[in-house]
Write a structure and sequence with these properties.
Elements: H1 44-62, E1 66-69, H2 72-79, E2 94-98, E3 104-107, H3 109-118, E4 127-129, H4 144-158, E5 166-168, H5 173-181, E6 186-188, H6 190-197, H7 202-225, H8 232-246, E7 250-258, E8 279-288, E9 291-292, E10 295-301, H9 306-325, H10 332-336, H11 350-353, E11 358-361, E12 368-372, E13 389-397, E14 404-414, E15 417-420, E16 431-432
Parallel strand pairs: 1-5, 3-4, 5-6, 10-16
Antiparallel strand pairs: 1-2, 2-3, 7-8, 8-9, 8-10, 11-12, 11-13, 13-14, 14-15
Amino acid sequence: MAKKPPAREVKDATPDALDPHHRWDRPIQAPGRMQVDFEERVDFRRLHAYRIGRTRQALARSGLGALLVFDQHNIRYISGTVIGEWARDKLIRYCLLTGPGEPWVWDFGSAARHHRLYAPWLLPDHCRAGMVGMRGAVPPTAGLFEQAAREIKELLTREGVAGMPVGIDVVEPPFLFALQKEGVVVRDGQQVMLEARVIKSADELTLLNMAAAMGDGVYQDIFEALKPGVRENEIVALANKRLYEMGSDCVEAINAISGERCSPHPHNFTDRMLRPGDQAYFDIIQSFVGYRTCYYRTFSVGRATAAQHSAYKKAREWMDNAIELIKPGVSTERIAKCFPKAQEIGFESEMAAFGLNFCHGLGLGLHERPIISRLNSLDDPMELKEGMVFAVETYCPATDGISAARIEEEVIVTPKGAQIITLFPAEELPIANRY
């Protein structure tokens, strides 16, 4: 076995400390994508050290001996490796981290070889070829799950944690069964990883801010393109093109909803043609170096009715009331109470209305902690901490029965309160190409 490198100097030395390179008295950067020698921008080695340091702290507190992760965001957080968004749902890549050990990564053989060449923060012999089931395409009878489970058990034994439970995030059932057959006690590892990922470092905040800046620019393009005759799918194509030109590594979704499709919210797009007086709202879900946006804006096309203005005003009030409360130490229960009850927006229960007026954490994942809503936060609140990043979303249907307002702001929890990083103007209803 290769000799272990010396222990990393992890800047995040206390459970909830932020990277000391972050200075709250300075603006959060949104630099260009180039590296330069005359400014400090994103330091990726510092980012790697912070993320694995947070993971080690969470693992040490969990009582687990190791984490075995299949979630692509967790793999990237621990190992700093990624092979493309298409791998998101294949469940063939996985990563192991034991308490005393260095990350192990299993990947397509050619990708593992690439990691050995270009990811020097990983031990070369810790990047291995692996393939199990590809979501059942290879049946369990092939024996790949059992082979992988034996390999995992061998490494747990070698690193001295074979007698301790292993935390797993998401897994194909045959892999779980094979691990249990080897005597591995399995626990929930996703909670450990979400605990690790909840506080963002200075580098993560910069990347999230850069991703939001890309959304700002795309909304200017959308605002200028909103004219009668343009179709929803054309706006989606425009947004995808601009985001990839700007450097996005994944455009996960662009929601585009207009006219009579606005209420209820369908969370998709069609080829519907925009018409004069339509209300239209959009969501930009994309990532820059893995860090995501969730960024809604609502517009009216050419003109707006009193009902549309009224719905927008209510959605903005709910938004502003929630953001005003955001600061370290505040309970998420207080934030949730700023949102309307389900019945106020025409739904029979909080479950039916979930996802319309709520908050969700942002990072490598689209939905991290905290999740703040009337569905869960009134009974199970958590405390806000500085360095959290989350999106605040509101939705209000109009009295005309078809229009609706949808607004979303991304915020960073600073010592002084919420800092909004989604900057395309949204204080009042924007009317594109006003008549």
